[in-house]
Amino acid sequence: MVKNSIVEFILKVEEISKVGLMYSTDPYARDNYEQLQKLAKTFIANQMNIDLKSSNFFARDIYPTPNVSVRTVVFNKERNKVLLVREKSDGGFSLPGGWAELCYSPSESALKEVWEEAGSKCKLVKLVGVFDRYNNVKTTGIPEYMVVYEGEILAEVNEPCFEIIEKGFYPVDDLPRWSAKNNPSQMEKIIAAAIKKETLFD
Q1: Contacts of 190 (CB under 8 A, 6+ apart)
Q2: What is the pLDDT of residues 43-62, one digit of tens each?
Q3: Domain range list for the chain
Q4: Pick the residue with more confidence: 48 or 131?
Q5: Who's near 159: CB < 8 A, 6+ residues apart?
């Protein structure tokens, strides 16, 4: 899933730099991220003739809008167990997923997350729905829309990424404790819709 366009490559460098500056506390790493960001912005401004002062879509204050994340529901053959990954952050469980990424379509982002978090090559077979992740939930988080697909595992390709302790299939009627980043009733609603082959939105 590597993009070939030089434009997409530079945008990806900018994205990685911005995320690195957001989360890294190491001064050497931050200095490197700042240099990468400056190089990317210089290229964007000089080679792509984009005025960053008037049109910089990396500045979140241009127009407040929800972030977008993706999730994938994967069942076993009998459709009575669902694939979950266990988060290192709090030991709770989640559907494989994460933020949608620049230069990837929603479906490409979903496949990438299954690859990284579950170590599995997957194909998407259905759109389960689009949800307001924080609908009717008290939160101080950034508003988020969640695009959810149903997928099928094609092959096990590698171990889960560093954010994940383990992965496995769990009975849909006896699910383990959800990670704190999830709304349990919403996750169960999503799984139930996928079982019934329904498409939901809110």
Answers
A1: 71, 73, 95, 128, 129, 131, 148, 200
A2: 877 776 666 554 455 555 44
A3: 6-47, 67-201
A4: 131
A5: 119
Displacement of CA 26 from its chain's centroid (Å): 24
Q: Is the dihedral of CA 175, 169, 82, 108 positive or negative?
A: positive
Beta bridge pairs of residue 85: 94, 167
Strand partners, 150: 73, 126
Residue 137 CA to residue 95 CA, distance in Å, equals 19
Pairing status of strand 144-156 against strand 164-171: unpaired
Nearest-angstrom CA–CA distance, 33 and 45: 18
Is the CB of residue 127 less than 8 Å from the CB of residue 43? no
Q: What is the pLDDT of residue 53?
A: 58
Bridge partners of 74? 151
Query: Which CATH number is 67-201 given?
Result: 3.90.79.10
Q: Measured between alpha carbons, how far is 132 from 66 in angstroms, rounded to an integer?
A: 9
Contact assessment for residue 82 and residue 172, using Cβ atoms and an 8 Å cutoff: yes
